[in-house]
Specification:
By secondary structure, the chain is mainly α.
Length: about 475
């Protein structure tokens, strides 16, 4: 075979096609460096389109972990093309790069270019791929994929699938889901590619961070959903540990208090058109801080902690020592305010937190001796209150049933040993139990009673009977 310039270019094109995120530096960096040097030598020349699309084709490698010199030279060459060709007039009303922006789901510009063989040789009539405006447009897209917010001038065109996905997620985060919330969150958790670009990785973490509160609210009751979200963030975290953070905490962005607004930012970070939309609102240099790995590590760690706690609480009782730190103080006494608040909230909205708390209270009650009669009484009253007032999962009810049966066996004709009347029929349990356990910290509620009245066997037997009926 004769080694002609055409044959050498053909071999280059074939080699570019084999470069991907999985390529090693020894294989890919020389190809990138050669292509970038040729382009930098004449960024506005007659063959600039070929070398530009060569870099576009190798962008999957360049967006992952290229050698520093290859990455720098490729970005310099793409920016040089943009400067040389952006203002060249052309007769076209539209170009392929504009339509490409609507289809880039994960910054995968390397899949969007033309068949490279078609760029070699004379241009066919009406070809818009080689148009200087289109070549400059692809150079800008690729530069933005490699180093987001480095170059402006891209149309604000959000990928169609992102617009649809963001609409579904926003409806969920605003409390009006279009479809099944669990399916939506599992879908969001599964959108991290194996080799994400800087923008896609940042957008993914920001989006899942925005979704954590809904997922952990108790509205999601399927363990696989929380497993998916935890697994997604666990896959993202190692990708954020390979660079140091040059910022102080004050220099990091502050996500807004609106989860749907944060989810929108997350989606827009994932595509050149979305990032162009963000640039229209905020300075590009400021937006770069959303890509900081130190900032993103903080978001991922926070979301993981929340989701793991929710998953363990919802789908399996937390270890008692974990709940010990939640419901007891350093001196070993109950944090009665935290306990009663948990149950009070659960009366109006079924809560996995209350289910774990009532299990914990029942176990602590069984383990507490008669030398702590006040704590033992309050724990029993908490179990009775929750069992009667909150809709508990069957396995939770079975675990506390033994406690209730033991109380319910008190003889009905047992004489009261106290002078006070029994507590009112529908007491404010939170106020009463707070004061009963810690009278020095909590004011006495109306119709307050002492330990004798609250601990009366006849009174407790009546509560247990009502609680067992509710469980049945």
């Amino acid at each position: 075979m004769i080694d002609t310039p055409a044959a050498r270019t053909q071999r280059l094109i074939e080699a570019w096609g084999r470069v991907s995120a999985a390529s090693g530096r020894a294989e890919a960096d020389p190809l990138v460096g050669d292509c970038a040097r040729r382009l930098l030598a004449d960024p506005g020349g007659a063959t600039a389109h070929l070398w530009t699309f060569g870099l576009v084709r190798m962008a999957g490698y360049l967006a992952w972990r290229p050698g520093p010199e290859a990455a720098r030279s490729a970005l310099d060459a793409l920016l040089a093309v943009d400067r040389a060709l952006r203002g060249v007039p052309c007769p076209h009303t539209s170009h392929p790069y504009e339509d490409t922006l609507k289809d880039l789901l994960a910054d995968e510009v390397w899949l969007a270019g033309p068949e490279l063989k078609s760029l070699f040789g004379p241009a066919p009539a009406g070809d818009t791929w080689r148009c200087p405006a289109n070549v400059a447009g692809f150079a800008r897209i690729t530069a933005d994929v490699l180093d987001p917010f480095t170059v402006g001038g891209l149309p604000e065109r959000i990928p169609t699938a992102h617009t649809s996905g963001l609409s579904s997620l926003s409806s969920l985060l605003n409390g009006y889901p279009y479809g099944d919330p669990g399916e939506e969150l599992s879908f969001q958790a599964g959108t991290l590619p194996r080799h994400p670009t800087k923008g896609v990785l940042a957008g993914y973490v920001v989006t899942l961070h925005a979704s954590q509160w809904y997922a952990a609210s108790g509205l999601i009751t399927e363990r696989p959903v929380l497993d998916d979200m935890v697994a997604g963030l666990e896959a993202a975290l190692p990708l954020l540990r390979d660079t140091s953070c040059p910022h102080t905490a004050a220099e990091h962005p502050r996500p807004a208090g609106d989860p749907s607004g944060n989810a929108m930012t997350g989606y827009y970070l994932r595509s050149p058109g979305g990032r162009a939309e963000l640039r229209a609102w905020t300075d590009g240099e400021l937006l770069k801080s959303w890509l900081c790995h130190g900032f993103l590590r903080g978001l991922a760690d926070e979301a993981l902690s929340t989701l793991r706690y929710a998953r363990d609480s919802l789908c399996g009782t937390l270890d008692d020592h974990v709940l010990d730190s939640t419901y007891t103080r350093r001196d070993g006494r109950l944090d009665i305010g935290a306990l009663t608040h948990c149950f009070d909230e659960a009366e109006y909205d079924k809560s996995w937190e209350a289910e774990n708390a009532v299990r914990w209270a029942a176990r602590r009650y069984a383990a507490t001796g008669d030398d702590s009669p006040r704590e033992r009484l309050v724990l029993l009253l908490l179990v009775l209150w929750c069992a009667e007032a909150v809709e508990l999962a069957p396995d939770v009810g079975e675990e506390i049933r033994e406690v209730l049966v033991g109380v319910g066996t008190a003889p009905p004709d047992t004489a009261c040993a106290h002078d006070e009347a029994h507590p009112p029929a529908y007491p404010d349990f939170q106020g009463h139990l707070n004061h009963l356990y810690a009278p020095g910290e909590f004011a006495a509620p109306e119709e307050a009673r002492g330990t004798e009245a609250w601990g009366c066997p006849r009174y407790l037997a009546g509560l247990a009977e009502d609680a067992l009926a509710a469980l049945a």
